[in-house]
Design a protein that fits this description.
Strand order of the largest sheet: 1-3-2
Structural class: alpha+beta
CATH architecture: Orthogonal Bundle
Oligomer: single chain
Number of strands: 3
CATH superfamily: Winged helix-like DNA-binding domain superfamily/Winged helix DNA-binding domain
Radius of gyration: 18 Å
Length: 110
């Protein structure tokens, strides 16, 4: 099952917090970006990621359900979500390597 960086962040944050996690904590995902998107875009992307994780059965959402829209306030991991979060903890992180420096070394060597 493929997960986006935001979905992986959500799973790991829920795994760290044993109780229900407030969705405002998830805005911390965008702290690492130098140029942050607008608040509306951040909220919409978090909402869509939460809905997709709920459909996959990895998390449970708590909030209000209306005819038109769902309002998710708090989230909690399911058993399947805990297993996938443990698997994510075991994966090695990608290093931010720049390929330009490697290409320039090859040009100077030839």
């Amino acid at each position: 099952m493929r997960l986006s960086k935001l979905q992986k962040y959500i799973l790991l944050q829920c795994f760290d917090n044993k109780n229900k996690l407030d969705r405002k904590v998830l805005l911390g995902f965008y702290r690492v970006y130098k140029k942050k998107p607008s608040r509306e875009i951040m909220v919409n992307s978090i909402t869509s990621s939460l809905e997709r994780l709920i459909k996959k059965g990895l998390i449970v959402g708590f909030g209000e359900l209306t005819k038109e829209k769902t309002f998710i306030n708090k989230i909690r991991l399911t058993i399947i979500g805990k297993k996938s979060a443990k698997k994510l903890l075991g994966e090695q992180k990608r290093l931010p390597l720049k390929l330009k420096t490697q290409k320039s070394k090859l040009k100077t060597a030839t």
